[in-house]
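Thread amino acids onto this structure.
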């Protein structure tokens, strides 16, 4: 097969595909209040609809996540995009909670199959060191922001508000699948081993032994960022409606976009900062944004909540980029599919489990107390991540001093 897309185009195309994948993930969020009003389900059911997506996504990551290391990136991404288009069609025909659950499961399977593979593809095609990890961490947040605003605007102002956003994304998914067909394989054509493919399909999450110490040191940072993202995408529209008394779907989308759009800025800006300032900047803005968002919600101030969401989003993007950058630089190309899949298993577990627990807590304690408890969890994760970073740097510094002493001796 002839390849029509040059490698210099492959990098931005892979990034756009990643962004569109996450745009589809965010699209249902501004519609949740509409679905709740239409079909009369509870906050717990809402978070369950959100959570089944993530559980399906994790199942795909654990099985299909490293297949691209054996069969190539392109076929996995194309298959996932076509499955994502099917999920958009299922949203269009959904007529109740069961229909939403089925659509979210299919969407989760498609997203899980593509997420780790697209991250690896972006790094494969990166034009310079660290560019790939920056784009791989900022493209998802840009996609989430774009999906939230697109859905909010179409729901509020367009015709067929419950359906149009899914039609737009369905067409986009099919178009991107056609474009990806013409991408090259960055590491060349692989010698296909069905035994290796079958082995990779067994549910597993793992990191090669030489990378484990580094990888586990990044887990608190990954958890602190994606736990916050899960709250915004599941209960965020409820906060905007019940605490801020805003019933405009576009504004609900704008709040999500403020969080995730500034996340892309946080990701992209880290390379401009000195190495020593990157992680503290991420942790400080993430923690400050969480505290301010609670203040804004409790005060009923849309302006404060919007600014706080942007600050927290900057910290989200910065912290996620710092973790992804450390992992990407240390991972050999042949193992990127597996390692990125495992990275997203950690991220999406943090994305879903706290949000599902929050849905249960809202039923028992109310939205305000749940928000406060979630904020305490977030601050605890940020403090843990920051402390772990300092401990790792001290250990690395000690090892370096010992090596120098041995050389001098």
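Threaded sequence (409 positions):
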């Amino acid at each position: 097969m002839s390849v029509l897309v040059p490698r210099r185009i492959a990098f931005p195309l892979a990034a756009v595909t990643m962004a569109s994948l996450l745009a589809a993930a965010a699209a249902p969020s501004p519609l949740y209040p509409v679905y709740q009003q239409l079909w009369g389900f509870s906050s717990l059911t809402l978070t369950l609809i959100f959570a089944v997506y993530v559980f399906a996504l994790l199942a795909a990551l654990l099985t299909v996540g490293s297949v691209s290391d054996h069969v190539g990136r392109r076929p996995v991404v194309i298959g996932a995009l076509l499955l994502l288009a099917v999920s958009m069609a299922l949203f269009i025909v959904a007529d109740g909670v069961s229909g939403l659950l089925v659509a979210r499961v299919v969407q989760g399977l498609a997203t899980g199959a593509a997420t780790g593979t697209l991250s690896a593809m972006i790094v494969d095609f990166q034009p310079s060191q660290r560019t790939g990890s920056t784009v791989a961490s900022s493209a998802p947040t840009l996609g989430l922001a774009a999906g939230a605003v697109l859905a909010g605007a179409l729901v509020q102002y367009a015709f067929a508000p419950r359906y149009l956003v899914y039609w737009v994304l369905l067409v986009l998914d099919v178009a991107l699948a056609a474009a990806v067909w013409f991408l090259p394989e960055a590491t060349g054509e692989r010698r296909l081993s069905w035994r290796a493919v079958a082995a990779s399909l067994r549910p597993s999450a793992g990191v090669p032994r030489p990378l484990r110490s580094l990888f586990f040191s990044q887990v608190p940072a990954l958890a602190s960022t994606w736990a916050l993202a899960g709250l915004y995408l599941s209960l965020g529209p409820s906060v905007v409606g019940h605490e801020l008394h805003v019933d405009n779907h576009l504004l609900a989308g704008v709040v999500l976009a403020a969080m995730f759009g500034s996340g892309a800025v946080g990701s992209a800006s880290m390379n401009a900062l000195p190495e020593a300032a990157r992680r503290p900047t991420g942790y400080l803005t993430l923690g400050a944004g969480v505290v301010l968002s609670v203040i804004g919600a409790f005060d009923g101030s849309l302006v404060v909540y919007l600014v706080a969401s942007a600050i927290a989003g900057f910290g989200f993007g910065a912290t996620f980029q710092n973790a992804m950058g450390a992992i990407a630089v240390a991972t050999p190309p042949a193992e990127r599919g597996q390692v990125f899949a495992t990275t997203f298993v950690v991220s999406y577990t943090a994305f879903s489990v706290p949000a599902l627990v929050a849905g249960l807590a809202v039923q028992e304690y109310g939205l305000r107390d749940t928000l406060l408890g979630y904020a305490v969890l977030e601050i605890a994760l940020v403090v843990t991540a920051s402390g772990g970073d300092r401990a790792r740097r001290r250990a690395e510094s000690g090892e370096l001093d010992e090596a120098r002493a041995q050389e001098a001796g």
